[in-house]
Amino acid sequence: MNHPPSETIGAGGAGARAGSDRRLGMFLFLLSLSVLFAASIAGYLVVRLRAPEWPPAGAPSLPAGLWLATLVLLLAGGAVHFAKTSTRAGKKTAARRALVVAFALGILFLVIQVRNWNALGPIEKTAPSALFGFTFYMLTGLHAAHVLGGLIALAIVAARAYRGPSSASEPGGIESCALYWHFLDAAWIVLFAVLLIGNA
User: Fold this and answer.
1) Which residues does 73 contact at the CB level (< 8 Å), separation at least 6?
2) pTM of full prediction above 0.70
3) What are the tens digits of pLDDT across the range 182-196?
4) Which letter does DSSP use for residue 169 in this model?
């Protein structure tokens, strides 16, 4: 059944409007998260710059597993990006598989982070050491919490992709998801760099 031209244009305009609103909402959401991470980093820098010695005497080194966590997170972001480009190209099977891979890598990232938290070991109960441990857990824990949120979003998008051809062809969800995971990648690189430089 052919729609009247005005109806077709109206449907297209509504779709474009919805896409524009979604992008604006995502931009504002990521902007608010950027402020949150920036404030956390600023708090770390204040503690770091005021400390007479950093890391404090007796404090452990940063876990080497942070490098592995970085690699796994970047691979997860790459998999989500591949899923997005595959969806745009109409390669639904490849997109679905990439979403599953991204989800598995996100889980692996969190597992590695838990091992990193355990590897840091018990922190001495002196004030400088307590601050050292607090700032490390604050920055990495804040990021891990948002990765957990990203996994929930990723699971929803993957579930929709597996429901059927019509759901898999809708790019809005996967594009927002990919944008969020790129943000997680960028935020982690900044956090990791701050931790490395701060502990140098």
Assistant:
1) 105, 106, 109, 147, 184, 185, 188
2) yes
3) 999 999 999 999 999
4) T
